[in-house]
Design brief:
Methylamine Dehydrogenase, Chain H, about 700 residues, UTP4, RNA binding, mainly beta, WD repeat, globular, 4-stranded antiparallel beta sheet
């Protein structure tokens, strides 16, 4: 636990923070990436059945998730325009996805066997796929369709990678032992380049505008070829084995490669070499990044940044330039949406995993002592001092609910009174009654539940004994009353009239009077909830250029607090229809690399805002303080420094950063009471514990 000594709201101000470090998700390996420069969207596929869409315009954040049918891992991704995303998987399916509605548009099975590679030409008219049996198909993607166009002469062995040249007239493929140049029009090989050994696999390819081919292979070499005459220009060993990924910057003067042993990211710079009267260009090692402990499977360049991912499932962003701080950010493979909910009075914590739910009882405090799973610290602002306190009782795992292996839990929640647990998979909803002493879970039969209880992407319980479910297919919120022996459907609210895109955030005010929803097209809508079910749309906040990353409502005040991906925090009065507090971009410097994931408000002091990113918990204070029944503003206070006074004078309606507490992969923060918080986090060592030991290499000066 941690105690925070802030501006004393009630004359004390110690805040106990439960550090719940028993959330142990397993890494989900990143398999492929495709970056869309126009929409600034990074699509990545994992070994699990999903495609993630990350917004990279400001601080990176997981914007949308496309859930795939069970057992269809995606091997390759490609973009055509800003709205057409294609995937090729090992079940042999080529699929185009609707990235707005997050569902399938078209499906083809070009060869009937596993598809290993895919690429789209520069004109975005043709798509090539390579298969397990050596078939290469050309598909037309014009007129917003996918149609068969031609098939190449069959080659021996699987087509592991393929790339069009800039003209689109030639296709370069890599397989076991060979790199081939094909005529797209005629479907036969023009040149075949042989590697050093026939058992060497070509894992990745890049084709430059000057018709230079760069290939990475399983022997750890990067080979450069002249595509005009199929001659080898250069060959360098960059890894001990398996160069899995290559990436180029826009100017094509920086080449990034990575792979298995060692899992380093190595950057090469195109350099002119002069020898006597001749001049040539060579790829010279520029720098390297030691950002991963396990192999890297995919790379992307977003100038000047390198985006990488692999077995550990951590999306890593580093710089391709020489700097004192090369590593910018590492984003753990968390699930989208809320993964934790808490019952305040009972001090129960529900944690969501892909295929199970865990219910924990939080520990209780005694004296000073460290605990592995939970501890208590105390810090004084602004120095940041911390100290540990003792737990009289350690946290206890009470139960685990499992679903079928192929079912994915997309949302779950625990009611505030710890009487109900509700979770939703992609196909159905389960509602269970929870009883204490002894602890029992009684699942309500489906025939006893209202038919409006449909699969939901967001599940909310209110203090007014209501259950809210958001149906993502139609953007409709269904309201249910929870009684001792039955569940009653009360009303529904159609969000689709005001929010056309999928909903990313959904919150209800503590008094149950307002509902706020944010969509993926940067809109935020507010509705006033009526007991009779005649809910009324109140207002849409002005659209901001950056996406919404967190929402929160004040208790006892009709004020909404919003965090955006560009680091801005705003407070909006729903009655006055006006902004009452707002910050500049990146008031918190760390939000350039990590977005604000959560906002925690003090019910007795509206001047204090706690926000958290994946790596820090921050305390901010309103510059222009508000007086409440519990908090009296002392306008003659002399505790402000001259710097603070200047900041307040320059931006009276803004906020200022008071202190920060470092965390590691912070998932969620809750308020249990005015002086008690809970944060759920996971350490990198625990995240990677289930993986094989990382690659060990000798370092200079070490035996």
């Amino acid at each position: 636990m941690t105690a925070i000594l802030n501006e004393p709201p009630q004359g004390g101000g110690k805040q106990q923070l439960h550090n719940a470090r028993f959330y142990t998700i397993k890494p989900r390996a990143i398999v492929g990436m495709a970056y869309n420069k126009l929409s600034k969207c990074l699509a990545l596929s994992r070994e699990t059945d999903c495609i993630e869409l990350w917004n990279m315009e400001y601080a990176p954040y997981l914007d949308r998730v496309i859930h795939l049918p069970p057992g269809s891992p995606v091997e390759a991704l490609a973009w055509a325009g800003t709205k057409r995303l294609f995937s090729a998987d090992l079940t042999g399916k080529l699929i185009e996805w609707d990235v707005l509605r997050l569902r399938q548009r078209y499906e083809q099975s070009p060869t009937g066997n596993a598809l290993w590679s895919m690429d789209i030409n520069g004109q975005e008219t043709e798509l090539a796929v390579g298969s397990e049996e050596g078939h290469i198909n050309i598909m037309s993607i014009e007129n917003d369709e996918i149609t068969y166009k031609s098939i190449f002469n069959k080659q021996k062995g699987r087509v592991l990678c393929c790339k069009f040249d800039k003209s689109g007239k030639h296709l370069i493929t890599g397989s076991e032992g060979y790199v081939r140049i094909w005529s797209v029009l005629k479907g036969h090989t023009l040149h075949t380049m042989t590697l050093s050994a026939k058992d060497v696999n070509v894992w990745c390819l890049r084709v430059l505008a000057d018709n230079t081919i760069v290939a990475g292979d399983s022997a750890g070499f990067v080979t450069v070829w002249n595509a005009e005459n199929a001659t080898q220009i250069d060959r360098q060993r960059v890894l001990d084995k398996n160069v899995f990924a290559l990436a180029l910057n826009e100017e094509e003067d920086r080449l990034v490669c990575s792979g298995m042993e060692p899992p380093l990211i190595r950057v090469f710079s195109k350099t002119k070499i002069r020898r006597e009267e001749s001049e040539s260009e060579r790829w010279i090692k520029f720098l390297q990044r030691d950002a991963h402990k396990h192999y890297v499977k995919s790379l992307a360049m977003i100038d000047p940044l390198i985006v990488s991912g692999g077995l550990d499932g951590i999306l890593t962003i580093t710089s391709s330039e020489r700097s004192s701080l090369p590593q910018l950010s590492q984003h753990a493979p968390f699930l989208q949406g809320s993964v934790a909910s808490v019952a305040i009075d009972a001090k129960l914590l529900l944690l969501r995993y892909p295929h199970s739910l865990d219910l924990w009882r939080l520990g209780t405090v005694a004296a000073r002592q460290e605990e592995d799973d939970e501890d208590e610290e105390r810090w004084d602002l602004p120095v940041g001092h911390t100290e540990d306190l003792v737990l009289a009782k350690p946290p206890q795992k009470l139960l685990q609910l499992n679903v079928r292996e192929k079912s994915f839990i997309q949302a779950a929640a625990l009611s505030p009174d710890a009487a109900w647990i509700c979770y939703s998979t992609l196909t159905d909803v389960r509602l269970s009654r929870l009883t204490q002493a002894p602890l029992q879970v009684e699942r309500r039969p489906a025939e006893d539940l209202p038919q409006e209880l449909t699969p939901a992407s967001h599940i909310l319980f209110t203090k007014q004994q209501q259950l809210l479910l958001l149906d993502p297919k139609v953007n409709r919120v269904n309201f249910f009353d929870l009684e001792e022996d039955r569940v009653l459907f009360r009303s529904s609210l159609d969000l689709g009239a005001h929010l056309k895109r999928s909903v990313s955030h959904l919150v209800v005010s503590p008094d149950g009077e307002y509902l706020v929803a944010a969509s993926t097209d940067h809109l935020i809508g507010v509705w006033r909830l009526q007991p009779a079910g005649k809910h009324k749309h109140l207002v849409n906040l002005p659209r901001h250029r950056a996406g919404t990353t967190a929402l929160a409502m004040h208790e006892g005040r009709p004020r909404l607090v919003v965090a955006y991906a560009d680091g801005r925090l705003v407070e909006y009065d729903l009655v006055k229809r006006a902004f009452t507090c707002e910050t500049v971009e990146y008031l918190i410097p760390g939000t350039r690399h990590f977005c604000i994931r959560g906002i925690i408000l003090d019910p007795k002091n509206p001047n204090i805002f706690l926000v958290h990113t994946e790596e820090y918990l921050y305390v901010l204070e309103r510059n222009k303080r508000l007086a409440t029944e519990d908090y009296v503003v002392n306008t003659k206070s002399k505790k402000y420094s001259q710097e603070s006074r200047s900041l307040i004078a320059a931006n009276p309606n803004g906020m200022r950063l008071k202190t920060q507490l470092p965390r590691q992969h912070l998932v969620h923060v809750f308020r249990l009471s005015p002086n008690e918080l809970v944060n759920v986090s996971i350490s990198t060592s625990n995240l990677l514990a289930s993986l094989p030991p990382p690659f060990q290499r000798k370092r200079f000066g070490a035996s």
